[in-house]
Amino acid sequence: MILPIVAYGDAVLKKKAKEIEKEYPKLDELLENMFETMYAAHGVGLAAPQVGLPIRLFLVDTAPFSEDEELSEDDREQLKGFRKVFINATIIEETGEEWSFTEGCLSIPDIREDVFRNETIKINYFDENFVEHTETYDGLVARVIQHEYDHIEGILFTDKLSSLKKRLIKGKLTNISKGKVNADYRMRFPLAKKIR
Fold this sequence. Notes:
It comes from Aquimarina celericrescens. This protein is an alpha+beta fold and 196 residues long.
């Protein structure tokens, strides 16, 4: 089932999410719905807060990036096969040079900005079967994970922009929260009801 994606301005996107237990109700169904929602919106990652749930869960499938001709063959191969679920994740370490890349977010349609992030991360998490992993990632895979991880920490990519950039996009962000945006996927707008 395709779930509505929560738009910028909803309080759930600014909350630090809570850990879940292995017995979390209907977890398999939630994961299936989240993957379906992410694919329907042409995303490469989706966090539970983006579907209104303040829990430490996100998923990633970087396959769409693997079609970028500007990337090396090795990078494209790594991106093609990277599909994972991250539960109760904690980034242990962020290392390497900070580098800039244009990011967008399903909760903030029509806004794309350059964001600086560290090149390499070490992360501890549980997969969909609640098997624990500690792994290291770099490049675009690390960036997608960092972006989704920020969601479970209550951080949006727009929070990482300079004050000047934030001022420049303030009107667009307000419009998104009111539902004045064209997205080709289901969304839930926090202020849309109040203005009707």
